[in-house]
Design goal:
Layout: H1 8-18, H2 21-40, H3 44-56
């Protein structure tokens, strides 16, 4: 079955053909930086700021 843009696999496949290697690397760098921040930053002030940002962006946290 061919992948379509309606699936996650199809979207990833399409991005691989539409983006340059530099754009893909930049996207991965941003994803890794955000993941590191969310996993390892436990300072209450930073945690509260990220929590408020997620609510401001419309993301339900709890």
């Amino acid at each position: 079955m061919p992948a379509t843009s309606d699936t996650v696999h199809g979207r990833i496949e399409r991005l691989g053909t539409e983006l340059t290697p530099t754009q893909l690397a930049a996207g991965m760098l941003v994803a890794v930086a955000l993941g590191f921040t969310l996993l390892f930053v436990q300072d209450p002030l930073v945690h509260d700021a990220m929590h408020n940002f997620r609510h401001g962006a419309g993301i339900t946290c709890h």
